[in-house]
């Protein structure tokens, strides 16, 4: 398992200095200790600078937008390639939207709108299969509507009904409550609401207006998950899975910790917050992954600690998020949101004001 992550020999905590180090000491190769000891505003400024550079790189890697509007399906496919939020052009649009929300630069919002419109046109011609936010057309529609205002396995967030419900919540957050009335028929007599990769059904349901009976069903599922975690504290990908090695948002402790932290806000029992903290310990010890992306990389794991920091205001969680943000390595799809450096940029933007952070396309 150790070949999947770097041993975490980072210091348990580094106090911030009262004043920033001299500019000469803050080169791009500054030591981790130097970065972690910076006053937070100084470190946030560095995160912003790095995020905007990565944002520009991700945008520059996009094909020219006119090509995205080519006349035939095959030309659309060649031009857009992957037009999903997960690994394609739509992820760049969401990064631009986040950059706009941090900086107020309307040029980013305008480019975001162009990309979303192009991706929607391309996906319509391609006959997009999934009605969901991360890997389907609901993501295009949700992003497009939001941007316009400013200017069984089928139940997964990545591919299915949970992703559609999350899109409804995303629109209601940005366009106003009750813009769309989502249905919560996902909660039924099926036991298959757990051990789902790529986002986890439970997290989406916690954003819904649930009946008391539905809440008990969700609570019972969460308790079942906690009771069936590995002795290490990590979580299996599927029921009966004995392969304890994945510590990613999409599979394992990081995604579960986010959901348990959210559950602790709905349910007063201490067990959910305690379990979220236990899962975060697994992330700290085994989550220094060899990729940088949101889905199965260091950036995604950083949100484990941002979520707990927003909830508890404990500075140790902010420190751990800082530590992961300060040490990054390589990516699958070099500039995509969920598997590449755009995810790193998104985390950097969220580090500027951690109390307003949120895992992209997952936490509202």
What would you say this structure looks like, in words?
The structure is a single chain. The chain is built from 15 helices and no strands. The longest helix has 21 residues. With 364 residues, it is mostly helical. It has a domain of 108 residues. It is globular. α7 runs parallel beside α8.
What is the fold's blueprint, element by element?
Blueprint: H1 32-36, H2 40-60, H3 65-68, H4 73-80, H5 89-103, H6 106-126, H7 137-150, H8 161-175, H9 201-205, H10 212-227, H11 253-266, H12 270-286, H13 298-312, H14 315-326, H15 341-352
Helix pairs in contact: 2-5, 2-15, 4-6, 5-6, 5-7, 5-15, 6-7, 7-8, 11-12, 11-13, 12-13, 13-14, 13-15
Summarize this structure as a short list of keywords or feature phrases.
mainly alpha
Q: Biggest sheet: strands, sense, closure?
A: none
Cα shape: globular
End-to-end CA span? 32 Å
Overall mean pLDDT = 74
Q: Total number of β-strand segments?
A: 0
Structural class: mainly alpha
Secondary-structure element series: HHHHHHHHHHHHHHH
The proportion of residues in beta strands is: under 5%
Helix share of residues? 40-55%
Measured on Cα atoms, how large is the radius of gyration?
A: 20 Å
